[in-house]
Predict the 3D structure of the following.
Amino acid sequence: MRTLDLESFLPYRLNRAAAAVSEELREVYGRKFGLTIPEWRLLATLAQFPRSTARSVGRHARLHKTKVSRAVQALEERRWLSRAENSADRREEFLTLTSLGLQAYRGIVPDMAAYEARLLAALGPANTEAVLHALDRLEAVLGLEAQRP
């Protein structure tokens, strides 16, 4: 049986890097607002794409529908999110951030931007360009480019 050398297996390395970044970012919004990863992804997606459905947010943020549902419920309980009926399809609702949700999002963004700036500075300009180019190609190969809710 062939074994994989996980330290050189690209999917494993990508997953580890993504998990590490996600965990570090979780410290930022978790400490400040007590959000979970799915709650943050829902908040961020709705800030960028207002009036989206739970299904489209899940597709965009790569979240399972149960995680989206729990995140919707949690943000609604905080009064950070509102739902509106979709008259064209009563099985779906449109989700929108409330002013409280937008205020919370705006309170997180500077810390997230600072984290990204630190990460990019640590990579340096040449490596940043190479990493971003590689990510663009990888997303294209995986069919992930320009998915809008």
